[in-house]
## 1
Amino acid sequence: MNSLIIPLNDWAAGERKFHSHAGSEFFQKFDNSEILDADVNVEIRVVKDGRNKVEADLRLMGSVTVPCDRCLDPVEIPVDTTPSETLTPGAGDVDWDLSQAIYDFICLSLPLQRKHPEGKCDPNTVRFLSHRERKNEEAASNSPFAALKGLFDSK
């Protein structure tokens, strides 16, 4: 049994716990090229009431490795989130596949800027970017629009 698929048809009500792991092979199934590697432990607590409602409390802990937004070298980002999901199944037997939800919750837990701590990026890349920023600043100061810079700054 895939431990991310919860079989709801073999129990009437109560609580069950499931454990799984989301590694790089898990993310490859979703064709996510940004996740280079992953090591996320998945704990699932499922509560099924007797009135056709099922709730899952998740605990996702570990890390994923993604390209740094600054230098493109791999950077490990910690993951620690506790989302919840609710399912109201229709009539009949159902298996609840939480794979997509777990994938989404892990991706949403990542910061918008994924980069190494200051000073930890590849020094050659940082040097190149600094040189490029200086050239862009020089080009901007020679622009005919440079005189408009700061026009709307508050005084």
Note: The beta strands are 5-7, 14-23, 37-48, 54-67, 74-81, 84-87, 95-97.
## 2
Amino acid sequence: MAIYILTDSTADFLPDEAQRRGIWVVPLKVQFGSETYADGLELDHAAFFRKLETAKELPTTSQAGPDDFLPWFERVKAQGDSLICLPLAASLSGTYQSAVIAKQLCGYEHIHVVDSTQTVLGLRLLVDLACLLRDQGLDAPAIAQKLERAKHHVRLLAVVDTLKYLHKGGRLPAAVSIAGGLLRVKPLISLRDGQLGLAGKGVGVKGSLAALAKLLGPELNRDERLPVYYGYTADDTICRELIAQTEQTFGPHPYEVHSVGAVIGTHVGPGAAVIVYLERDN
């Protein structure tokens, strides 16, 4: 029985990469006025931020529906195989619930839908872990069980240029947005166990990166099976400074750098840098 892995486009796997690695991706949608695009398929990352820069109004995003998942589920059922489905956090989108409904419609027990409690590189990390566990020979129930445990150890912190996009998108209350919106202040946000919040702030880029390093703690308590993931929206300048700051503080470590796409870019805006890693499960 083969094991397939499916996620959504907020994990930001580029199409060629997903195909090469055998990862299935359900796209979410981004809408600029009357124009709707499938995230990652009809609008790549660079094109999205070019449109965002000139847009008169912020774009909107929409979740994937049950019909977006059902063909993949039916395919696995017809083949008699297993599937691990990892959508973005249920607390951030109805996409997870759509996957649950699609499983019920499919009526196939070998589909395992896991609430990742994450998105963007936190979601990518869990998908990579699922691939690693599959390649080690674990069966689908065992992989799902390990993912349920591992998701509580994903550490995601980000420096954002402004909180206005998160506030306008309804992801942060006004009071939190105002607290992080002072002149020259760069807010730090965290996402853990599905809870998005303001983790701190720093003055200017250097101050914010120093504050982020302190939030990471006295050591980079990293699970050595996976690298550290760094990401950026639109421009990687601050991301590269974040890498340098982290390596200066904690020493060299394996890492990957990825751009962040349209759906999360809509809610974060340009000028953000993110660090994600899986903590050791002591």
Note: DSSP finds eleven helices and 13 strands in the chain.
## 3
Amino acid sequence: MREEKNKDRRQFDWVLLFLVLFLAVFGLVLLYSTSAYNGRVKFHDPAYYFKKQLFATLLGLAGLYLVSRLDYHWLAKFSPGLYLMSLGLSLAVLFVGEEINGSKRWLSLGPLSFQPAEFAKVAVILLLSWYVSQRARKTVGLLFMVKVMLLILPIVGLVGTNNLSTAIIILGIGVLTIFVSNPKYVQFVGIGGAGIAFVAVFLSLESYRLERLAIWKNPEAYEKGFQTIQGLYAIGSGGIFGRGLGSSMQKLGFVPEAQNDMIFSIICEELGLTGAVLLMLVFGLLLWRLMVLATHAPDLLGSLICGGIMGHMAMQVILNIAVVTNTIPNTGITLPFVSYGGTSVLFLLGEMGLALSVSRREKR
């Protein structure tokens, strides 16, 4: 019994855990620095956002520990039920969801609010990993690719009605899962074309989405381009080493809701190019560890779970930084572990727990 415990402890991926804890603590520090002004003005409490995020982070760390102790094979068996639950919650958002800043994405549970789209990402990663691993010898061909995409289209459609960016990430997770399990690459040209067509249709359904494209091309010509312009001012004014932690000027009402999607611009202003590059390096190390886990996983299921988590993290980090630097139109994507969002950090830590569960059984 003692030998099994020592072996389990030795195989646990401490590097991944350290990177996750570093990002969680770093995110809390930067969130407090960024949100103190808004918290004081709106709620007469500079620590308002920090305290809510701290509660969600502690809850997420408890979830990380519990999930990491469970066998991911056992968790995968419940993936169809979790996926159906995510469909039900996403459907409920359309009818009884709470609208905040013009978007209906939240379900209110008393004093707490919950964003089902974040739960949907985890449910899709588990479902696709389980589904593909059950059909390991039938992952070649267009029919298999179509089946996988049809499997996630209902949740993509429900989430995409109010949250196009998250719908794109879920689609990306599906494409990545197929790519990892399929030895052929030509078919992905067709998937890429279908994905572009899907995004084009969703863009055309709502006028505000087309407006975002126009704002991206010329933010100075639109009132709603104010946030983008102020974010770029923050990035530029930070220089190489920044103004210093807590010394941002743009967070004082110039960048609206700076603690949310645009927090990377405040990081650039306070910590400069050096701090921004170091943060991106930590994210890069996290993705590297997830890739290592996917490579050394004991079976296809574990490999696909780690690959799906890695893809989710990579897409979200790249899209957020691209939006803040105005490389792509504004999509409303948060920066993992750093942006304000209790539901987001809770399920991100849950995903890390899944990856650590795989690490306990990986091949050495």
Note: Confidence is low (pLDDT under 50) at residues 1-10.
